[in-house]
């Protein structure tokens, strides 16, 4: 899973990067103290997970997440912040988790694992062939999936 981290506090940024290194299957492709730099990166690179602080100068984490979603609709978010006030807004952006500082490694690892499970599930769905669905409404109502009638 390709991840990036955005936090204006360099010590938290480094801590999150170290935690990501401890989790197999996760690669941190960028760590940014600037929201705009992170947004530029997302415009040019495929990112599956963005770990974002909320209170940052310029674009806050919620605004950044919304803009990232516009660029890459499948990107997933974990918010790590010192504030409880933004949880509802974060979940409205379909955040996978909302972790308050300070946090434990086990809490962090669990949140990242949840994102990994979702990405794996989405990947499995993408590999399935698309079915041909036919609906007939003349006389009676029939639905066929790949030529086989659907009974309900």
Describe the protein:
This protein has 152 residues and is of the alpha/beta class. It has one domain (2-149): 3-Layer(aba) Sandwich (Rossmann fold), CATH 3.40.50.2300. The protein is 41% helix and 23% strand. It has five helices and eight strands. The strands form two sheets. A five-stranded parallel beta sheet has the order 2-1-3-4-5, sandwiched between helices. Strand 7 (142-145) and strand 8 form a beta hairpin. Helix 2 (35-44) runs parallel beside helix 3 (61-71). The longest helix has 23 residues, at 105-127. The protein is elongated, with a radius of gyration of 20 Å. The chain starts with a strand and ends with a strand. The relative contact order is 0.14. The model has no long low-confidence stretch (mean pLDDT 90).
């Amino acid at each position: 899973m390709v991840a990036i981290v955005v936090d204006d506090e360099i010590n938290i940024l480094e801590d999150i990067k170290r935690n990501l290194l401890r989790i197999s299957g996760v690669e941190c492709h960028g760590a940014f103290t600037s929201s705009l730099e992170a947004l530029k990166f997302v415009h040019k690179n495929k990112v599956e997970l963005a770990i974002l602080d909320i209170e940052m100068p310029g674009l806050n984490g919620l605004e950044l997440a919304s803009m990232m979603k516009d660029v890459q609709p499948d990107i997933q978010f974990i918010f790590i912040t010192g504030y409880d006030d933004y949880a509802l807004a974060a979940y409205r952006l379909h955040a996978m988790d909302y972790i308050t500082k300070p946090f434990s490694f086990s809490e962090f690892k669990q949140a990242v694992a949840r994102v990994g499970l979702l990405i794996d599930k989405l990947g499995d769905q993408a590999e399935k062939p698309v079915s041909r669905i036919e609906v007939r409404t003349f006389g009676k109502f029939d639905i066929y999936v790949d030529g086989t009638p659907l009974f309900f």
